Amino acid sequence: MISVNEARKILAENLTRGGSVEIQVSEAAGYVVYRDIVSPADVPAFDNSAMDGYALAWGKNRESWTVVVEIPAGSAKNFRLSEGEAARIFTGSPMPEGADTVIPQEQIERTGNIIQYTLPGFGTGANVRYKGTQIRTGELMMQRGTLLSAGGVGLLASVGFATVEVFAPPVLSVIVTGSELRTPGEPLTHGAIFDSNSPMLKAALNRLGVRKIYTSRVADNEPELRKNIEKELNKSDVVIISGGISVGDYDFVKTSLAGLGVKELFYKVKQRPGKPIFAGKLENKWVFALPGNPASVLSCFSHYVKPCIRYFMGHNNVWNPDITLPLAEDSIKKKGLTFFMKAYTENGKVHLAEGQQSFNLIAFSKADCFAELPEDVDFVEAGTSVNIYFL
Ligand code: AMP
Ligand code: MG
């Protein structure tokens, strides 16, 4: 059996990037820019006022001006001020020609159309936002590989982009296996359970920006299972299977995958939860078969599937933990297995949640992350820094 880091290394050697897709900028936060982006415009597009106040030509030993015009934001007219004239102006209004400075209204005394400035010292050019000072037409604005935030979306929109080309998410299939499974909403007969894995995986995939997700549910029946996996492999870049990968008499996933020619990258990892995880490839397509216990599914998804999907979608450093934090309390563990513990962060420390069994989801009522406890120890002391992966 291989260690968690060996499993990561094997996946890292098999990573592939996806193609690109053009999407609305407002939908693009969380996606990665596919091509270098050059600004198609000067921003600001015109010299404009940074304040509500008066635009005028500063200097020339003058302390008073005559207000001859008012320029609201959005005004499309061009004005020219003559010597001794000022314009009433507002934040974002275009500067009139002949003016070089805006004096904030709080610093002006106005009587009728005459304004006076009496405070000493004022810099020429104050409170003016000049054309092109944020970015100029043709300047490189964002590099390929940039992760778009909401702020990045704002920047794209500010130069006039309605759409942006980003790394495309993979098309994905989720197959849940198990004759005991019912969909929430269906009646639950004795011996049956609700399928929590497919909603959970879909939710996790949605958060990664994966939009095209086929879900199917298959009973523990080998021919049906094989047919279903084959069908999903034809449609999708990534196939995630839950359940049926363990050693029970009704666990048909591994033989089905072998029958379909899926190449095994690894099977079984020295970890808790989720030891019997399978990762494989069919040409460029990923296949992950995760042990069906719900907490194993989410843990395996987070630590193996998610990094591969994120790499496909243009992200880098996909194996890095989100952060490291000191453990709040001592923890005893089994040596020889990496433990991925459901945990919650509080005041800069990480606490392990109650209910760590792999069938038990109750810890997720509180957990916001997985904390990774290393393989080669049987005890982790409070205060030790551990790797944290947010849910
Ligand atoms: P398996 O990996 O198929 O042996 O399943 C392990 C445990 O997880 C069993 O108790 C299953 O009933 C349960 N399980 C499997 N699939 C799901 C699912 N989609 N939702 C909730 N529990 C599941
Ligand atoms: Mg099963």
TrEMBL record:
Cofactor(s) this protein requires: Mg(2+)
Record flagged with keyword Transmembrane helix: no
Functional pathway: Cofactor biosynthesis; molybdopterin biosynthesis
Source superkingdom: Bacteria
GO molecular function annotations of the record: metal ion binding; molybdopterin molybdotransferase activity
CDD domains from the UniProt entry: MoeA
UniProt keyword Transferase present: yes
Record's keyword terms, sorted: Magnesium, Metal-binding, Molybdenum, Molybdenum cofactor biosynthesis, Transferase
GO biological process: one example: Mo-molybdopterin cofactor biosynthetic process
GO cellular component, as recorded: cytosol
One Pfam family of this chain: MoeA_C
PANTHER family: GEPHYRIN (PTHR10192:SF5), MOLYBDOPTERIN BIOSYNTHESIS PROTEIN (PTHR10192)
Family to which the UniProt record says this protein belongs: Belongs to the MoeA family.
Protein name: Molybdopterin molybdenumtransferase
